DUF4012 domain-containing protein (Candidatus Magasanikbacteria bacterium GW2011_GWA2_46_17), 476 residues
Amino acid sequence: MMVIFIVVLGLGVVGWRMYKTGKLQEALVQKLGSRVFEKQEEMNLVYQALGFKEPRTYLVLFLNNTEMRPGGGFIGAYAAVRVDKGTPHILKVEGTEILDNRAPRNVSSPPPEALKKYLYIERWNFRDSNWSPDFASSAAKAMELYALENGTAASEITGVIGITPTVLQEVLRLSGPVRVGGELYTADNVVQKLEYEVEYGYARRGISFDDRKKVLADMTHALVSRLRYDVFRNWSKYLGLAGGMAKEKHIIVFALEPDTQRVLMLKNWAGTMKSADGDYLLWADANLASLKTDLAMDRELSYSITPTSSGRAVISAGYMAKVKMKYIHKGKFDQFTTRYRTYARVYTPMGTVFYKVKGSLRNDRTTDPGTVDQGVENGRQWFGAFISIEPGKTGELEWQFYLSPRVSDQIRAGTYKLLAQKQIGTIANGLTLNLNFGKKVIFASPGEPQDQHGDTQYRIAADLREDREFEVKLDD
């Protein structure tokens, strides 16, 4: 996938379309691929993905993480791209609202209950398709709705690629600023400037609503011009950038072909909910009509467990867990910022038993407690609720539940493992663990500060810039 990113980034530059046989492209793939893949089987899949055997068509989702959705960010725009012998051919680029508004009237696609309840929509639109925090699930739904709405080359799609604006920021940080339509775009202002252009600036320029996102295509052309030689002179830097963006889930890929998807998951480029043989935690927010307020939000996630009685755990009940998200709204009401309305879900192992929730709201116009939803997805138990935070304020949503019996049994047997997965598109939410096992901790990875050794608790502060794994060994 990193190879694909570099190749596509350099495609069309320095006259690549002159090389109809794809020999130049193939040579570059071989050079870059040897740095990433150890097995020839994996290289063969890269050649296949880049259309050296037969053309491949991809649905590219632009995931706006200033408006978070469970699968990475609101899908404000998309592209259909065919790759043939390493060279991309753009079939379509437009705003998702155009495709949704063009959809046949007889399309029937009931939306998730939360979208229906809080946004009052009756049809599941393509732009809302990434409702799952598991990218494979969201990609499959995106392909389904794209086909229902008669998207370009829908029957030919072989994979889905998700990209957040964070990638554009980091590319500009490497390449330097670019000028588009008389405006200078830098790594520090590109997200805000693009938001302004597609929401307000287009009218000032005399551009129609349907063409307002043409600035994205103009930005692409400007980047291609800037990167014409830079990407080849500094390919190792761009390769490192691609790897970092994939690890941090700002570039994610889904492939219909099972062997390719297996490699993507092995390399941690697929954005899937991973299997875990111990405890598991994933918090997913869904910005519901809160403009681009995620730019103004800081988040701090804390997770604690305690035995259900003083001292050692009661075998029949085990351990009580609390997971709390603290939302810090640093903004004020303006054209891009409003109160933050989110439908938040926490994912835990199967067998987790809900106890209670604190901080949920019925809606953003009342302080009445909200309802709690529960469900199962990808072999995980989830709980969901709504909360709203006013500008300049702090809000908290806390779940309490009994740990899965399987996890409690592992603790009693002397081992605890936790996989904490980040939500696709988030930057580096804070993560604090305070885990009381009721028995002495004898080993932990990552380790605690030395002055906290020797007791029954594991305390550590980290972040969710990427997925995190923790392991604790306990005295019998």
